[in-house]
Amino acid sequence: GVSVLLGGSISRALQQMSNSMIIDEKVLNDCLNEITRALLQADVQFKLVRDMQTNIKKIVNLDDLAAGHNKRKIIQQAIFNELCKILDPGKPAFTLKKGKSSVVMFVGLQGSGKTTTCTKYAYYHQKKGWKPALVCVDTFRAGAFDQLKQNSTKAKIPFYGSYTESDPVRIAVEGVGNLLCIGQATFDQAQAFKQSVAVGAMIVTKMDGHAKGGGALSAVAATKSPVIFIGTGEHMDEFEVFNVKPFVSRLLALLQELSEGTFTLRNFLKMGPIVQEISMLPGASQELMRKELDSSNLKLMNESQIMRIARGCGCPVRNVMEMLEKYKTTAKTWKRLEISKKGDMNAQNMR
Ligand code: GDP
After folding, report:
1. Taking the model in full, what pTM does it have?
2. pLDDT of 149-183, one tens digit each?
3. ipTM value > 0.90
4. How far is the CA of 112 from the centre of ligand 1 (A)?
5. CB of 200 within 8 A of CB of 174?
6. Which of the listed residues 105, 109, 114, 116 should we mutate to test ligand 1's pocket, taking the one with most ligand atoms within 8 A of CB?
7. What stretches of the chain adopt beta strand conformation (E)?
8. Which domain holds residue 22?
């Protein structure tokens, strides 16, 4: 069995369910609605959530539940399996072939983390004995090549790019030829950059700062391609092989925070730039600082606490105060969102 952490109100819904004598359709629906709400908040696409709900209803047999089986376990397992199913596109992940050169193209929105992630990807493979090289074909964003150059130099990975050439295909062909001295096959691959290429695999970035992990589910559904890695920070080694089951467990743990509706200061800080400052502290101070922030109640936070946090982060008191102000505003918005989500859910009565 897989042990699953389910969201607070989801757990409560299941708890009630396992204790109640009669499990009718309404009880099951209430529970599924609770899960639906949490999933939508975690940025999972509406259609996916709706299909999942339908599937769970098909799987979870009310007669079985009535027969006194462990109801909670049955439903819990069904949710877990459904989420795993969504993340498994049913086709193998793209893999690098031993003894051959492969060209991997990174595609993504501006700021999504391509430059950072391709370095992480190259660094990861370099440590495993591969000979990676990086080519910057982003001729659009200012400073893209410099950023890649900097990253590559730091990781001691050969790189190629151009300040003057504006045709990305040309740079790709030259770069790949230059770094690998390879033949026609790779040239052809590089040429294929011109056409829009089918997505071979995905890397979900910013899993650390993101309050939502559900986007990965929607992405797999949209591209029918598997996620192979996740980015968990800005540093070179904050990069993990993606595994469906642990990810779903983590996602469900996140749903716990969301379904409890608690927008904590700690959650807020996960999204803020202050995290960066905290992450530069030595390990022990980081832990202290996190404890401080976890236990801090915004309303009760006094001057000396603010000063302690500022000192711990090595940033001006003014920054901490600004951050707290932002937190207050966001918390208010969050509350409104919570309320309106509840309203939506009742209106849609998702079936
Ligand atoms: P690009 O425009 O797609 O090349 O994006 P960049 O690689 O320049 O990344 C944009 C910003 O996101 C940079 O500040 C990165 O440091 C940051 N970033 C990238 N990946 C991660 C990640 O996994 N976690 C966090 N916290 N930040 C990331």
Report:
1. 0.65
2. 999 999 999 999 988 888 888 888 888 777 757 44
3. yes
4. 6
5. no
6. 116
7. 134-135, 159-160, 202-204, 227-231, 239-241
8. 8-87
